[in-house]
Structure formats: C-alpha cells, structure tokens
Write a structure and sequence with these properties.
The chain is mainly alpha-helical. The chain has 22 helices and two strands. It has a two-stranded parallel sheet with strand order 1-2. Helix 1 links the parallel strand 1 and strand 2. Helix 6 runs antiparallel to helix 21, helix 16 runs parallel beside helix 18 and helix 16 runs antiparallel to helix 20. The longest helix has 30 residues. The radius of gyration is 25 Å and the shape is globular. The two termini are about 35 Å apart.
C-alpha cells in the first residue's frame, strides 16, 4: 500500500536533490509545487518520511541570490543589450531622416504668445537641408510610422511562438530580422521609397516578438523575488539605446554620412546575435555553464511558486480574456502608453511651437529625460524586490504602489506643464520629472504578467503590448486633430488634461483589480484537474 505524505517545498526539494532511497514514495502539496509528473527530476526519486528530511537553512537557500555575476544575470545583461540594439535601430531613422531628405518645411502654425528664445535655432533662416530625397511631410510620416504596422501584428504570435518553441530563438531571430533590414536600409531607400516602407514594416515584424519572447524567457529564468530588478535591468536597455543613439546618430550623420548610422548599429546587432546564440539557453537545465547550485536555486524558487517549465500546454485563451486581472494589466498598459507616447512624441512639439524652444537642438536636454527614466527604472526594480524579499509588502501591494506612482506622478506634471506659462526651464523640468517618474510603472503592470501566469507570460505580454501599441499609432493623429495644426496654449492644455485623466484612470483601474497572485489557470487548464492524494491549493483570489 502506498503511503502519502504532504511535504513542505524545501523538504521535497532536498529529498529529491540528494536522491534518498527509502521504502515509500511521496506526493507533494500542490499549494507549493506542481505534481510529480510535471517535475521530471522529482518523479524518479523516492523520499523518506518528511520528518526525516532536514530543512535547509535560510542562508543556504538565499546566499546565491546576491550574486549579480551569476549566469541568470549575465543573460539579463545580454537581453539588456538586445533591447539597446533594437531601440537604437528603431529610432536611428528619426535622426538620420533629417540628413536624408531635402524638403523639411513645417506646415504647423506656431503660437506667438511666447517669445522666440533663440532665433538662431528655431528660425527658418538657417541653411536648408541638402539631403538626396525629396519627401514631403506626409511621406515622411508614412516612412516613420510604417514600423509600427508590422510591430503590432507579431505581438501575440511572438508570445505564442516563444511559449511553444522556446524564447531564445524567437528573441534572437527577431533582433536579427531588424538588424538585417537596418543594414539594407541605404540600398533599399535608394532603390525605391515604397520598397523601403515595406522593409520598415518587416523590421517591425521582427522587433514585435522581442518583448513577448523576453517575458517568456524570464518566466523560466527569473526567481520570483528577483523578477523586478532583472526585468528592470533588461527593459532599461530600451531607454539606454534611445539615450545613446539619438546624439550618436546625429554625430555620425554630421561626420561620415547618414548611411553609416545604419551600418554601425546594424553591425552591433550582428555581433550581439552571435554572442546571444552562444551563451543563452531557454531554461537553466539546458545551459552549458551554469553551476549546479545556481540551477538548483532557480528551479527550487520557481517550483516553490508552483511554476514548472513546459512548452506543451495549450494556451487558455478563454480564461485569459475573461480574467479581470489580465484586463487590469491591459487597461494599465494602454493608458500608460498613451501618456508615455504623448510625453515623448508630442511634448517636443509643444515646446517648439508654443514655447518656441526646440529641445532636439540641445543634445544634453534631449537625453536628460531618458537618463532620468533609465536611472529611476533600475532603482525601482531593486527597491521593489527588496520590499518583497524582506516581506515588508506583498507582491500585489508592490505592483499596485509602483504602478500608481508611475502613472499618477506624470499626470500631475502633465497638468502643471499647461500652466507654467512661457517659462521654458520650468516646462522642461516638468517634462523630465514626468518621464523619469513614469519608470516605476514598469515594475508594476509591466512585470505583472509573470506574476499571474509565468508559463504564459509571453502570450499575455503579446496581448497587452499589442493593444498598447495602438496609442502610438492613433495618439499623434488625435492630437493633430485636436490642435488642427494651429498650436496654442489653450489647445495643448486640454490635451494635457485629457492625457492626465487617462493616466489616472489606468492607475485606479489597476489599483482596484490588479493582483500579484498566480491565476488558477496559469499552468494550463488541463493541469488543474484534482490529483489523487494531492492537497489542492487554497483559493488565492
């Protein structure tokens, strides 16, 4: 007769780790771990009575956690540079196009309420561009926006592919696709502008899989109490790439020619791809150089949460789209992106046409918002994990507080910008604070996918990021319609108030309905059937 024991996570883990050979098998508590059949390295072992298995000390289990030079963090650093590359290749065209085109005449009517601060910068008396392409504003808009039409289409497929076949190749080849078309840009753009637009769409296809694939990868690599700082490090690469690429691209255009903007960053992408394929694996169990201690630590941490790696479970689409927690992430993500795109894409127009100051003409000021965002994002990740690790706050509380800070603070300073008058310095200060303090939202809703469903985190991010891309496409169009291309302080004040209201709605909806607890369907609905002799989990709602 089989005797059933309900063991603690640590007892089961260490019993299996040392391959103890007693007389009776065991089952485990599904409140802390998955069933035997879903944990291969446990299913072959037989453990003694739980009382005979020694509990590990806290220092034994957490000592390796402090190492920022571990394999899992080196993978995070590689992912950071991956996002550095894709964002550099995404934004380099917006800088290079100034040197590429001949016709850059502005059709916007500037407000005359504020004086021109520096006529030598904003006056039309400067030397006209001498680019080789005669594109009007409408065609330039199609060229710059075409990327997003491809980007939005591969969000959900990218998450599914990463979940089904592994995130290493999906992420790597996604970056490679963007890299190849970046290197081909000078040839394609001289061949035909519409061929180039198609190439930009294909670049978007490649880059669209990167965020969902990275969420899927970290679902297998990031221990629960290290998720915030690892994800913050990884996604800070996007802001670092923007911060470095903008001034460097301008320097390259001015010295050796706009073509080399694409050759330089495309070349960096090729080098990164080669290293990525060499040193990264989909799971800790597949990595060549990881130590046994670190591998066991990661597996134990994930199993303790009830997460186990599998690429065969069917995606629970119905449960995903009927989950209020998922919709809380969707609403927060869409609202955050609306405000963020307004800050990054539209506020420079307000400064230029209303306050009569072009922030793009000052390299330091152009990079300052991104620098602030990058620093606050990394700091937020480490603070969030510290609060969770020391049990000062629950995961749910940390996610909600971070998201509230990251969305309510920009809302306040957006409204303030509309009332600073013609004080350019005060407006720029509000801009920097608004963008920088948006960073905590990235350790709120943006990591929450892995909390509620680690196995399907890539699919979830594909859904939310796909929907959240829409504000980047329609936002500038809506703002253009509201201002009718006649820039006045009153019109922009209304835009700031509407955007602040969207920020507040996103923060409140997530605060009421968001959660850091794992969903019941997170391992696939087929894996939730009750098992004989296994203690069922308590309701976590």
């Amino acid at each position: 007769e089989t005797t059933t024991y309900t063991c603690s996570t640590e007892q089961v883990y260490f019993a299996a780790r040392v391959r103890v050979s007693p007389a009776v098998p065991y089952t485990i508590n599904r409140n802390t771990m998955a069933s035997d059949e879903t944990v291969p390295f446990l299913s072959e072992s037989k453990a003694r009575s739980c009382s005979q298995v020694e509990e590990p000390s806290k220092s034994e289990m957490t000592g390796i956690r402090r190492s920022l030079c571990s394999v899992r963090f080196w993978i995070a650093y590689m992912a950071l540079f991956g996002f550095f590359n894709v964002y550099a290749m995404r934004v380099n065209l917006s800088v290079a196009i100034v040197s590429m085109v001949r016709d850059l005449n502005d059709t916007n009517t500037a407000d005359t309420e504020c004086p021109v601060l520096e006529p030598n910068r904003t006056s039309n008396a400067t030397t006209p561009p001498t680019g080789e392409f005669n594109w009007d504003k409408a065609l330039q808009g199609y060229v710059l926006s075409s990327f997003f039409y491809g980007y939005i289409l591969t969000q959900v497929p990218g998450g599914w592919l990463a979940t089904r076949f592994g995130a290493k190749y999906v992420y790597g080849f996604g970056v490679l696709t963007t890299t190849v078309f970046t290197l081909l840009t000078p040839v394609l753009v001289r061949w035909n502008v519409y061929v180039f637009i198609v190439a930009r769409v294909l670049e978007g296809f490649g880059e669209g899989v990167t965020y969902p694939a990275m969420h899927a990868l970290m679902g297998c690599w990031a221990p629960p109490l290290e998720r915030s700082k690892m994800m913050a490090l990884i996604y800070s690469g996007a802001h670092l790439g923007t911060m470095v690429c903008s001034p460097l691209s301008g320097l390259i255009c001015a010295t050796i020619g706009w073509e080399y903007v694409f050759y330089v960053f495309g070349g960096l992408g090729l080098v990164w791809f080669a290293v990525w394929m060499l040193v990264v694996s989909d799971k800790p169990t597949d990595h060549k150089w990881i130590s046994t201690e670190e591998k066991d630590y990661i597996l134990h941490a994930l199993h303790a949460e009830g997460t186990h790696a599998s690429q065969n479970a069917a995606v629970p689409w119905r449960q995903i789209f009927t989950s209020l927690r998922v919709w809380a992430i969707i609403v927060a993500h869409v609202c955050n992106n609306w405000g963020f795109y307004c800050l990054l894409l539209c506020l420079p127009s307000y400064l230029k046409y209303v306050l009569r100051f072009d922030i793009k003409d000052d390299g330091l000021l152009s990079g300052l918002p991104y620098m602030c965002l990058w620093f606050v994002l990394i700091l937020s990740g480490f603070v969030a994990d510290y609060l969770r690790d020391h049990e000062y706050l629950s995961t749910t509380a940390v996610r909600k507080i971070a998201n509230s800070i990251g969305q309510l603070t920009p809302a306040i300073f957006l409204i303030a910008i509309g009332y600073v008058g013609c004080d350019t310095q005060l407006a720029i200060m509000c801009l920097v604070i608004a963008i920088g303090m948006n960073a905590p939202a990235n350790v709120g809703y943006n990591i929450n996918h892995i909390d509620i469903a680690p196995k399907f985190a890539g699919v979830l991010l594909g859904i939310t990021n796909g929907l959240a891309t829409i504000p980047g496409i329609v936002g500038p169009i809506v703002i253009g319609l509201l201002t009718n291309h006649h820039e006045t302080r009153a019109e922009w004040r209304l835009i700031f108030q509407v955007t602040a209201g969207i920020y507040v709605f996103g923060a409140l909806f997530y605060a009421f309905f968001g959660s850091g607890k794992k969903e019941w369907w997170a391992d696939g609905v087929n894996n939730y059937e009750p098992l004989v002799g296994v203690v069922e989990p308590e309701d976590s709602s």
